[in-house]
Amino acid sequence: MSSRTLIHGGLVITASDEIHADVLIEDGRIAALAASGTPAAEAFTAERTIDATGKYVIPGGVDAHTHMELPFGGTFASDTFETGTRAAAWGGTTTIVDFAVQSVGHSLREGLDAWHAKAEGNCAIDYGFHMIVSDVNQETLKEMDLLVEEGVTSFKQFMAYPGVFYSDDGQILRAMQRSAENGGLIMMHAENGIAIDVLVEQALARGETDPRYHGEVRKALLEAEATHRAIKLAQVAGAPLYVVHVSAMEAVAELARARDEGLPVFGETCPQYLFLSTDNLAEPDFEGSKYVCSTPLRPKEHQAKLWQGLRTNDLQVVSTDHCPFCFVGQKELGRGDFSKIPNGLPGVENRMDLLHQAVVDGHISRRRWIEIACAAPARMFGMYPKKGTITPGADADVVIYDPHAEQVVSAETHHMNVDYSAYEGKRLTGRVETVLSRGEPVITEREYTGHAGHGVYTPRSTCQYLN
């Protein structure tokens, strides 16, 4: 028995087009589109019809950077795959790519298997994995080839966090050389962690222990230096490079320069760098700890350069780096020592709405909104056009979006498993109304109608910007 759903009367927005069209869904996929009111559209028949008059019909969001259940700093990210993917759906995201972690002394396969076990049967929406590579050796390099073959086609390395995830330049170069051969994409946390550790030690010795010092020691120049170094190492290896959570204008300049030279270098930023700043880190009574993440929030003047980078395509993707820790009992681990505050912010539920607000505010166009939040991450990580667009044959991951609804962001009403919102009290125009994942309603007119286990693991091809 096939099942059909018709979405009628909305403005369909993709990265390339805007058209008033009816969308026919059959057996979990987009079957056809036809301009509303035409004979082709009027010929569509379905068991279920969704009226999208006056609304946008957009692809489900693709958040290519989340950390559900991540162990960090003696605790764990507070969202499980169940709570985190449910919150993602509430915010109009229908696919996440999370990070499986290789621990030092263990294989990539052990890390990947552990993350499959956490996610399987628990997700409300579809998911894939990147692999964090913490221990580069001959066995690890061989495993990278095997993972690419089975659809884990991106590998994250850290120039930060010595003693935890850190790789030195030699290890980074070896992994990049391997990815140049196997088609994988190296994702880089670009901060000079060795230098930062010196500045942390010196700040604490001076009695500078408040959260705001987290931003002061993780200097923008050390992000820019690491970004430059990562680009040059990738150039030596003949490998593509994707720099995660770019926060500093100086780092954007490094990416722009590399792209102007024709290098296959890509950049991601996150809503927190577009909407928050060091003013938040400086909030009194330890409230600033809520905003501790790495790369850190920057002074407000960096925001304009990030928006510019998104408009000029020097930055291609907006992901969340969703890695929530509760204020009570988790962020508080760093009272009296900012270096012990778990690094990370909640945001998987807020991204699509915040970026729509950016459309309202004139920073980006509607199509660019869909590009940076849906299509570009899907292409970057080998899931397009299955994910990230509305076209015949694509998965029916579709959001009915009310561009006129108004909301106030608050921890009291969000669905992430965390006791604060990074955007508490922020007024937004636009809100998700209904969400379909592979044709199944996960959110129905602002009611959760999904379930854990609907989401399936999604193997990925290699980066589609390189083909």
List keywords for this structure.
19 strands, eight-stranded parallel β-sheet, 23% strand, alpha/beta, nine-stranded mixed β-sheet, 467 residues
Helical content class: 25-40%
Radius of gyration of CA atoms, rounded to a whole number? 21 Å
Largest sheet: 9 strands, mixed
Return residue spans where pLDDT drops below 50 for at least 5 consecutive residues. Answer: none
Structural class: alpha/beta
Strand residues, percent: 15-25%
Please give the count of helices: 14
The total strand number stands at 19
Overall body shape: globular
Mean pLDDT: 97
User: What is the distance, rounded to the nearest whole angstrom, between the alpha carbons of the first and last residues?
Assistant: 38 Å
Please write out the topology.
Layout: E1 4-13, E2 18-26, E3 29-35, H1 39-42, E4 48-51, E5 56-59, E6 61-66, E7 71-72, E8 75-76, H2 81-90, E9 93-101, H3 108-119, E10 126-132, H4 138-149, E11 154-158, H5 169-182, E12 185-189, H6 193-205, H7 212-217, H8 220-237, E13 241-243, H9 249-260, E14 265-269, H10 271-275, H11 278-281, H12 301-312, E15 317-318, H13 351-360, H14 366-380, E16 398-408, E17 427-437, E18 440-444, E19 447-448
Parallel strand pairs: 1-4, 1-5, 6-9, 9-10, 10-11, 11-12, 12-13, 13-14, 14-15
Antiparallel strand pairs: 1-2, 2-3, 5-16, 7-8, 16-17, 17-18, 18-19
Helix pairs in contact: 4-5, 5-8, 8-9
